[in-house]
Every structure is written in structure tokens, then in C-alpha cells.
Structure prediction request, 219 residues.
Amino acid sequence: MATPPRQRTGRSPRSRRTRPPRALGPSDLERGWSFYFSNEPTTEFGYYGSGFLETARTLARSFARRRGRRQIDILPVLFLYRHSIELLAKAVLLSGNRLMQRGRAGQDERDLFASFSRSRHRLLPLFDSIRQVFEYAHWEWHWPKSAIESFDDAQRVIEELDTLDPDSFNFRYPTNIRGERAISPGHLIGLRTILAVLDDLAEALDTAVFGLDAECSRA
Prediction:
């Protein structure tokens, strides 16, 4: 005897739409805050990077004024600086690629994002490509009276930063995913030195993004 086919219950499929937040949503006494900044999210890397940079600076100033600060208090500042540098470096590549596309020398933006996926959070591969952007724009990296005066200087700083925190992990967690100490106890830094150098590096990248976007608008 054949088994009759299972009949549908008539229930409509469950909606896949994201529900609006309730516990985290705006109260009746405040305006709602949106994460929508522009029609083109791929152009917002510089915007995000400058936001993290300004927050890093604010926290660094607070850290410098505070008395009785704990040694661990520097980690959020370092993470914010490192993250701003990563965002701004990617913004340089995205803006540079748009400029190069105007001259038919750029690549498909999807391929650029695929390269971001392969390099994950490492900074050194980004700087290898930034050099190509500067060469195309006929720019010379020059940040006088700093530890990143030339492009080679900036690349050496990135190499050190990649050694200290290669995957944007070590400033956030005490161990890696295997439970091993993230940063060697013998790895010493100078607080004022590292904050000044990272601030200069982030500012230089932010300036480059602004310049490339201006070049694109004129092309």
C-alpha cells in the first residue's frame, strides 16, 4: 500500500529579516543611531579609520593624564591605533585602485577584497601594495621629523607592529587560540614612543586617503 505524500500545513515560512533591536534600541528619550553612513560602504574605510584614530587619540590623552594607571590600560589604546592603521591602509588601496581604474590600470574591486581576505588582518601585505599606489600617483612618501620619514621607514615600523600583533589579536587577548602567551614577556616598548609613531603612521595614511580621493574627483 503506497504511503500518501505528506501534506503541507499551510504555515508560511519564517521570515529571515533581522528583527529591530529592542534591548539595545533607542529609548523614548533619545534619537536612534544608524550605522548607515553612505550609499557606497566600500568608500567608508577611511571614514571608519579616522573615527578609530580620533578615539585612540582621546583615550591616549586620558591615559597620559591619569594617575595610578595600570600597565594593562595601554592595550585598548594600542588596539585602536592598530585598527585605525589597518582600516586606513585598506582605504588607501581602495581609493588608489579607483584612481588606477580611471587610467585602466586598476583591478576589479572584488579581487581587491579577495586579497584582503587572504591577508586577513596582517599589515605588511597591505604596505607592499600601497607602494604601487604611490608609484602610480607619482607620489613620494615624506613625513619629516618622524620615525616614518620615508616609505622604507614606515615599512620597518609595520614590520615591527606585525611582529608584535600580526593578526590584530595580541592587543585584545592574553593568549592565542592555543592558550599560549600572546606577547613574549621580553618584548618591551616605550609607551610615549609607540603612541607617537603609531599616531604619525595613521595620520600619514589618513592624509593619503584624502589626497587620493581628491585625485579621483579631478580625474
About this structure: Helices lie at 45-65, 74-102, 109-119, 124-137, 151-164, 191-218. The chain has one domain: 41-218. The mean pLDDT is 90.
